[in-house]
Amino acid sequence: MHYEDLAKAFSELQPGFSPQEAVTEASRCIKCEDAPCSKACPAGIDVSKFIRQIASRNFTGAIKVIKEDNILAGICARICPQSLLCEGQCSSSELAKPIKIGRLQRFAADQEMEKGPKPLRSLREKTIRVAVVGSGPAGLSAAAFLKRLGYDVDLFESESHPGGVLMYGIPAYRLPKEVVTQEVKYIQSLGVKIHEKHPIDNPVSLLEQYKAVFIGTGTSLPYKLGLPGEELSGIIQALDLLREVSMALIEQRDCDITLGDRVVVIGGGNAAMDSAVTARKLGAKKVTILYRRSENEMPAWEEEKKFALAQGISIQTLTGPVRFLGKEGQVSGLECVEMRLGEVDESGRNRPIPLTGSEFRIPCSAAILAIGQGPSIAPEGLERDPSGLVRVDEETLVTSVPGIYAGGDLIRGSDTAVQAVGDGKRAAFAIDTWIQSLPK
Ligand SMILES: Cc1cc2nc3c(=O)[nH]c(=O)nc-3n(C[C@H](O)[C@H](O)[C@H](O)COP(=O)(O)OP(=O)(O)OC[C@H]3O[C@@H](n4cnc5c(N)ncnc54)[C@H](O)[C@@H]3O)c2cc1C
Ligand code: SF4
User: Fold this and answer.
1) Domain count, the chain
2) Which domain does 230 fall in, by range?
3) Distance (Å, rounded) from C-alpha 2 to C-alpha 6?
4) Are residues 357 and 249 in the same domain?
5) Would you call 25 helix, strand, or coil by DSSP?
6) Which ligand 1 atom is nearest residue 414's CA?
7) pLDDT digit string (tens) for 357-372?
8) Could you tell me if 82 and 21 lie in one domain?
9) In this structure, are 236 and 365 located in the same domain?
10) Which pLDDT score, from 0 to 100, does residue 379 have?
11) Do 141 and 234 have their domain in common?
């Protein structure tokens, strides 16, 4: 697809508030005494305070309040699952409809970006060096808070652009790349040194040069199905598809991927929804998501599912792939089997059981695999759980090695950006407390 068409197809969908709309919405807040919205925000934003600032037209004050706790204000405003977090708690109050907290946060962040961001309060510079590995939301948040606490921060990123999944995974129609670039630039302006194309294979060895290390390398190694025919051309990992489209937008070039008219997506999470919508935007006429359990067990958020359905995508549940079919090395279809739900398994969901003799075929021009991913690095010397996630102390996020901290998807598995931001912030304060406690 040509760059111009791509940029149009992937332009941001949700419009922002005008100043008057923002003030009107903020004025609906009934100022609950216990502010359940703030308690539900994993980054710990003082939500009721910033809403009050907007209601009184103090937009600069509002963004200052937000950034005290969440340095990725404009990003999280766009992609947080608000109905499960801040707005979900707001709806339990006396209001008939929850305050649109995410859109108010976006308004405050966009206003600031338009006018040029203001510096944040930081402590006096120390000469102590700390390192951060990975520039996703966990690493960016840890680096920004450590810098504000006065440390000399080096952030190492293996890719050519910082941002992690924010830059390479989440499609631009939900999170424009410029918003990620602007917020990363702001963190750099605080004094964080970002070293791109600089993978760290053994983060523990950084302790030779740095007092403490935070690891936020996420989970970017996609799982495979292990089915016959998986090597056929036209079968693509969801993250590779999303990455190629993102790269084309960042580099302002044409996108090389051709998926054809009939695409199947295997999986039931947000990556499945995002890649299905992406396939539609790239021109696929029929896109079907195949999921082996029922809709109740689908991990994708309700809003994401609804949006995919509104784009004309169909979701076929209780369907398990058996093998890929091909013609001259190219995928041409999928043999599937109908499933029924059995007992609850170790994942806490009902186990899908194939119905013998129910095999059927679905023709396709491309198949997208979106069945989840695991950690891409196995940091040497750190305790990990059986799935490879790094084990940490729940409160301080310190790993089994003193001085090494970790957060984000690397310790939780696939989660949310705001949870990663919260981890980065928590670890930064824990690192500071630990360093201050060391003998001088
Ligand atoms: C398709 C998709 C859609 C999503 N949609 C949403 C959404 O709408 N809302 C939401 O809140 N969450 C969403 N998520 C989840 C969210 O993006 C993640 O929870 C979040 O990005 C995790 O942050 P992180 O910092 O832990 O890891 P990541 O964002 O994965 O960042 C890790 C970084 O570490 C770098 N790295 C890896 N190894 C090394 C190394 N050895 N040396 C140096 N750097 C390294 C990587 O290149 C990457 O930049 C989505 C995830 C996906 C995949
Ligand atoms: S960061 Fe996300 S969860 Fe927290 S208040 Fe903002 S929109 Fe809500």
Assistant:
1) 3
2) 224-371
3) 6
4) yes
5) helix
6) 19
7) 999 999 999 999 999 9
8) yes
9) yes
10) 78
11) no
Strand partners, 235: 367
Answer yes or no: do 81 and 145 share one domain: no
Q: Which residues pair with 229 in a beta bridge?
A: none
Say yes or no: CB of residue 376 within 6 Å of ligand 1. Answer: yes
Pocket probe for ligand 1: among 157, 161, 217, 421, the residue whose CB has the most ligand atoms within 8 Å is 217
Tell me which of 170, 179, 265, 273 to substitute to probe ligand 1's pocket, judged by most ligand atoms within 8 Å of the beta carbon: 170
Q: Which letter does DSSP use for residue 396 in this model?
A: T
Q: For 225-274, how does the pLDDT look when each residue is reduced to its tens digit (9 = 90+)?
A: 999 999 999 999 999 999 999 999 999 999 989 999 999 999 999 999 99
Task: Tell me if 134 is assigned to some domain.
Answer: yes
Q: Ligand nearest 51 Cα, by number?
A: 2
Q: Looking at the predicted structure, is the pLDDT value of residue 116 above 90?
A: no
CATH code for position 35: 1.10.1060.10
Provide the H-helix boundaries in 264-398: 270-281, 302-310
DSSP for 52-99 reads HHHHTT-HHHHHHHHHHH-S-HHHHHHHS-GGGTHHHHHTTSS-SS--
How many other β-carbons are positioned within 10 Å of the β-carbon of residue 316? 12
Q: Are residues 245 and 365 in the same domain?
A: yes
Ligand 1 within 6 A of 242 CB?
yes
Number of residues that this document lists for the chain = 440
Q: Is residue 403 part of a domain?
A: yes
For residue 221, the CA-to-ligand 2 centroid distance in Å is 28
Nearest protein Cα to ligand 1, atom 20: 417
Residues 73 and 139 in one domain: no
- Kindly give, in sequence order, each residue whose CB lies less than 8 Å from that of residue 62, ignoring residues fewer than 6 positions away: 50, 51, 53, 54, 104, 108
CATH number, domain at 230? 3.50.50.60
ipTM for the whole predicted complex goes beyond 0.95: yes
- Of the residues 354, 371, 388, which one is the last residue of a structural domain? 371
Ligand 1 pocket mutation, candidates 10, 12, 140, 165, criterion most atoms within 8 A of CB: 165
Tell me how far CA of residue 192 lies from CA of 144, 149, 435, in angstroms. Answer: 7, 12, 19
First to last CA, the chain: 59
**Do 163 and 108 share a structural domain?**
no
The mean pLDDT value for 334-353 works out to: 90
> Using a 6 Å cutoff on CB, does residue 169 contact ligand 1?
yes
Task: Indicate if the alpha-carbon torsion angle 275, 277, 282, 284 is positive or negative.
Answer: positive
Cross-strand pairs, 339: 354
